[in-house]
Amino acid sequence: MRHAYDTLLRLYPDAFRRRYGVEMSLDFADGWHEARANGPAAALAFATRAAGDLAVSLVREWTRGSRLAIGAGAAAVTMLLWGVALRPWAWKWDIQPGPRNPGPVADVTAGQLLALLAAAMIPVILVLLFATRMVKRRELPRRRP
Amino acid sequence: MPAYQPLTPAVFHVLLALADGDKHGYAIMKSVEEHTAGTLKMGAGTLYGTLQRLTDAGWVLEVTPPQAVSARDERRRFYRLTSDGRQALGGEVRRLEDLVRIARRSRGVPKAARH
Predict the structure, then answer these.
(1) pLDDT digits (tens, 9 = 90+) for B74-105
(2) What span, in angstroms and rounded, lies between the C-alpha atoms of B107 and B114?
(3) ipTM of the predicted assembly exceeds 0.90
(4) Is B60 helix (H, G, I), strand (E, B) or coil?
């Protein structure tokens, strides 16, 4: 089990793994040893908790310091998808740049349009989630003067 | 004493664990578990991510292990609360006390929770 955990530790960013990898491995070994001594249910609970912690902290460590870039990227993708989704309607509403070409309206079905709109919502939700986290769960508090 | 924004539970419990004295990571985890009567079991990823941020912020610092440690613990780093960290912990305790005092004055809060 410890070997499996050590292998998964390689998924952390290099700097974090070099700084804390040995300690995390030792802590896991001690925790696992203790949990096994308390029976199979405790061992299973420990393994489940360790897996959950690993998944959450991996995302946190990889996105640390780049949350703003991820938010900006998601916003750009949102704009692009919304642009693609609404493009056929630009011809219908007569706001298209360049010469008129009514063709694309007939080419896009309502289903396709809905799928595009649904896809476009994913980055919007992502941005909102990031914004909420930034406001609600500030990792370290700032000192107020 | 400066006012602070609320601490996250992970930060609060790590600072609280280190308020008793220098500890290595596993001892911090066990201390958190003990303080919360087993309701909060901190994983290694969460603990070391928090320690990294606290160390970078100057609230916690790494210290050399005490001489009387086992051979196994020699491979571990020990962590110590700095005066800034202690001040932040004190600020958070006062903030929580204020919240509880306000809540206890409220008639909407059940009587059993007011004492």
Answers:
(1) 778 899 999 999 999 999 999 999 998 888 88
(2) 9
(3) no
(4) strand
Sign of the alpha-carbon torsion through B35, B41, B46, B47:
positive
* Among chain A residues, CA nearest to B1: A145
Average pLDDT over chain B reads 87
Contact at CB, B76 and A26, closer than 8 angstroms? yes
- pLDDT-derived band at B16 (thresholds 50, 70, 90) equals very high
- For chain B, list the domains and their CATH numbers: 9-106 (1.10.10.10)
Contacts of B54 (CB under 8 A, 6+ apart): A140, B11, B14, B15, B60, B85
Q: From the CA of B106, how many Å to the nearest CA of chain A?
A: 25
CB contact at 8 A, A80 and B71: no
Q: Do B5 and A144 touch (CB under 8 A)?
A: yes
Report whether A51 contacts A40 (CB < 8 A): no
Taking the C-alpha atoms of residue A88 and residue B11, their distance in angstroms, rounded to an integer, is: 51
For chain A, what are the domain ranges?
A: 2-63, 67-136
Q: How far apart are CA B43 and CA A67, in angstroms?
A: 23
Look at residue A90 in the predicted model and tell me its pLDDT.
66
pLDDT at B1: 42
Residue A63: both structure tokens together: 């996105």
Mutate to test the interface with B, among A140, A142, A143 (most CBs of B within 10 A): A140
> Tokens 């928090």 map to which residue?
B50
Distance (Å, rounded) from C-alpha B22 to C-alpha B40? 21
Is the whole model's pTM more than 0.90, yes or no? Answer: no
Instruction: List pLDDT tens digits, range A40-54.
Output: 999 999 999 999 999
